Amino acid sequence: MVDVHAEVLNEESGLDGKYHFLGKLVWFISVGDNIGLEMTGALLTGFTLFSLVVGCESEPTHAGPERKGDSNGQYPLVHLTSHSAFQLVNDSLSFSRADYFCRGQFSFLVTMDQTNDQEEALELLRQTGLRSPIWIKDPSRVTSKPVALSKQYVPFSALSFPKESREGFVHVNILFPALSSVSVCVRVQWDSEWNEVSTIFSYAAPVFTNEFQLRGQVDMQGRILLALIIHGKHLPYKASFPNDGAWHHICVTWQRSNSHWAIYVDGDKKDTGTGTDTSRDIYGNGILILGQDQDSFGGNFTEPFFGNITDLNVWNTSLETRHVLALNACSPMTQEILFSWNLDLLRCHPLVKEIQALLFCPAGHQQMELQGCRTLQGWTDQLPLLGRTDCSDLLPFICRNSRERYLKMKQMRESQGSLPTAFMSQLMKLSNKSQPVLGQQSSGLSSLTQASALLEVSAQALEDTHQQGLQPADMVSLIQLLSLAADIPSQPVDHVSNQSQDSVQELSQHFISVADGIISEDNALKWQAIKEVVNGPMDVVKSIDRMVTSLSPRLMTENDHLTFHSPNIKLEVQQQRLQEGSRGSSFCGPETQEHTSLDCISVPHEKIQDLHNNGFHRLTLVNTWYGSLRPLFNPEENITMVPTVTDGSQRYLGTVLGSSVISTTVLGDDQPVSTAVRFQLQHKVQNPTGTMYDPVCAFWDFDLIPEAGGWWNTKGCEVVSKQYGYTVCYCNHTTNFALLLQVYETQRTPENEKALQVLTFIGCGVSLCGLLFTFILFIAVGVPKSDRTTVHKNLIVALGIAELLLMCSDWASENEAACFLVTVLLHLFFMASFSWMLVEGLLLWSKVVSVNISEDHRMKLYYIIGWGLPVLIVGVTLAISADKYKADDHCWLNVKTDTIWAFVGPVIFVLAVNAVVLCRVVMVTVSSARRRAKMLSPSSASKMQTFDLTWAVTRPVLILLPILGLTWLCGVLVHLSVVVAYVFIALNSFQGLYVFLVYAVYNSEVRNAIKRIKEKRKALSFTNCSQPTSFLPSQRVPITSWGHSPPSPSSPETSETSGPTSSTSTSLVIKNESFRKESFVSFSLKPASGNQVVQLTGFKPSGC
């Protein structure tokens, strides 16, 4: 055992301070039609209703401490450990109802995937001596979400029985053994014009004719009723399906061991019973005939079937519900099969014709039920024995809760028992007044009626005690009542009378009234008081969803539209037959006093048409609006979400619920389906000064954090448009939706934002002029062609176009198409700018660091990087996320999606590479400066070292930082201060000016080219004035280097002059032997000032 402090508790019975809420409620509700409610007086009525709402007990039955069990053998035991409470509920329920029961007690079905759960559950079973299987939870399965149910066309070969003759039949040519169990499944399409008794199939043995037969007839309401004949006993017509001309799947099962039989229609068990002859098997060596009865062995046909039949299968076993569901979903089942549909094994009457049928099959329908539900069969050697069984079987189960929650509930129960609240007192009073109504109920009434009466009295008590309000214990009890009432087994649609339909409507209205009282804003503080017990207000929402989904087929038998109103809840149920051109659906919450935009949700008509195209015939839409949930969520509990990427102008503070909650549940042929919806919600939160909100479309996911009752999720939802006061969203599924508002503290004032915008515009204008002048100079003055100048030109073009587009982006934002085009071009040319900055870094690396790199085809690689890579990135981004490419309110990439990483990712890579290049260049420069300082003046090297080395480091950084784009590193810090934002804009919007200064004004090649032009003009003018024409020089005047080292004639890149120098200047050019001839570092030393200047040939600024 893990916990030595574990103990087993038996709750006391009686009236002395402990009222068994669930024990009584399950007695009235959970058992359903098998028991009745007997009221013998006002005192008993008062006690019952009082205990129903006060009890908060954790078990549906109870036993006194002196008994091992009550008359039904039920053991209500709670096993406490240091962290958990395990409670055995020995009242057999189906798996789904057992799961809901535990959730109604704010606990969970026990699992066997954790060692602690195994040990404690087995210990509880040992102490009770219970050896029968129990339900356990499979944590890998998620069952609360509606499946994406669709119907698919599946072709079948079918047989048609025409009305032209009553003689058509089909003989199944197989030999049948004696059968102790049998299942027969078939798909039929009934002739809607035939109203007489028909035989779908009949099996006759040589010694007994009416051995096993399925018959049908049309009732007064136009439905087809089915009945079985077993061993000659005709069972009643009860199971039914509509005579709508559609295909229906019918299965019948029988087993001798317990004389149990069942009829399934379209996967649902429509009729079942016992009491057939169990003294013998079904005789063997018989004949199975389709479409006719057999008044004699193999003949005397008198009750023909008219319509179509296909997919007949016979098994020598009794199928479980999950197997029938699988067959209904067109899934094969070959286990113990006697006959599988095969036309070659059939002998048909000449009138019966083979046809081709396309059937709709519910693919993926109820996957959990198809595979069965998990059970604990027992244990051996401390190990659990796990298995699976039909989910509809009735088994006991164990609920697991936290110790703190269980003890808190027990504390509430005891305090409530000692001093009833105002609500409880009024409930007792109303129970006495309602005696005449309740007294008319007999033991034959359904649990649906009883639950309606209980909810009605509770709703009245809530209204009467509105001024006093609810206490925490009252709320816990009422939440439990709603959870159990939502799971009431009700009559099939086939047996719903006008009276029972009225009961369903009354129950729904009372249910909404009670739920409304619980989620009232007045109870906000009470919700905080019970948060240790109840997960939150979404538990009430889930109960409403379950109730309406369960009861909607009964609600809509005679109505196509129903609405239930309360101050905080509006519920609407719509139903329509699906056909070509089916209209869309819309639902809005109540109008507000301010007459602002409404909270609305709709299912687009094309999605409803898709349901029709996928084979659904009837659509039910359950729409609900909750107006008071937002104040009930603890404002101190921040909703954890990843903040939206911003430009640094705001600081993320947190996320809050900012709207009402609205939901749509879509039922296709009474099965939950998921489809896309569009909804609009008002913003319920005002913007305080200095903050702003960014809406996020979200939904409540009950499976996200199950132990907390769920959490907000944004998967599949996106913002369509944001307007002042409301937001429009689109989600690709159905559930409960709301707006989450991400709260940001505004870092910059409107004045700062305006100033930054003006500075950006001015800077881009100045940069554009600088880039334009630089490009003209490169073309006009005849700068020698080289890889370096080519790279410079491409960078200038890319950066210039990008800044021009940036200046025009505000004007383009008014037109959606133009704005999208500008966004694409901005992305392309800014990516090209950074790509050419990367090329600048690679070129500098090849000139200064790795000079042995081959130059062959180098420019081709540079062009691929500079232009090819940006085109590839932009193209792939558009192909992947064109719908999320552009931001909503300006012409740039959407920073709220992953699209922004198509720009940020490559930029970070370029900056990282160029930062490495710059560091390596600085290291080379410093190393060279030290060597030259020692060569010039070994004795004074130490005196010059500090200042000269500082300048040797600073100068290349100042020159190269903007050229390599490293000033963009400031962008990651703009959120820290508005000062950093000014610095960032100043450095980057004026980047073109830096390029002009470095590449043009301080570029010795440009200056030398201009000087040559001036000298040529001067020489030409002098020759024209004073010399004969033949005296003109035939070549350029040679340029002498300061270091008296002429440049290599084979490399125009090394041609430079540094201009005149003073008489005190000494110049050296020392070539690195490992460099290429054109790759050298030139230094200008000024002994008079002690300064040492490092000049990089990669950019060739002058020495001035």
TrEMBL record:
It comes from the Eukaryota. It comes from Amphiprion ocellaris. It is found in: Membrane. This is Adhesion G protein-coupled receptor D2. Residues 1051-1067 have a biased composition (Low complexity). Its main location: membrane. Belongs to the G-protein coupled receptor 2 family. Adhesion G-protein coupled receptor (ADGR) subfamily. It is a multi-pass membrane protein. Gene3D superfamilies: 2.60.120.200, 2.60.220.50, Rhodopsin 7-helix transmembrane proteins (1.20.1070.10). Residues 155-361 form the Pentraxin (PTX) domain. The keyword Ribosomal protein does not apply. GO terms for cellular component: plasma membrane. Coiled coil: none annotated. One of its GO terms (biological process) is adenylate cyclase-activating G protein-coupled receptor signaling pathway. Residues 756-1003 form the G-protein coupled receptors family 2 profile domain. Keywords: Disulfide bond, Membrane, Transmembrane, Transmembrane helix. Residues 1042-1070 are annotated as: Disordered. Residues 560-747 form the GAIN-B domain. The chain crosses the membrane at residues 758-783, 795-812, 824-849, 861-880, 900-928, 949-974, 980-1002. GO terms for molecular function: G protein-coupled receptor activity. Pfam families: 7tm_2, GPS, Pentaxin.
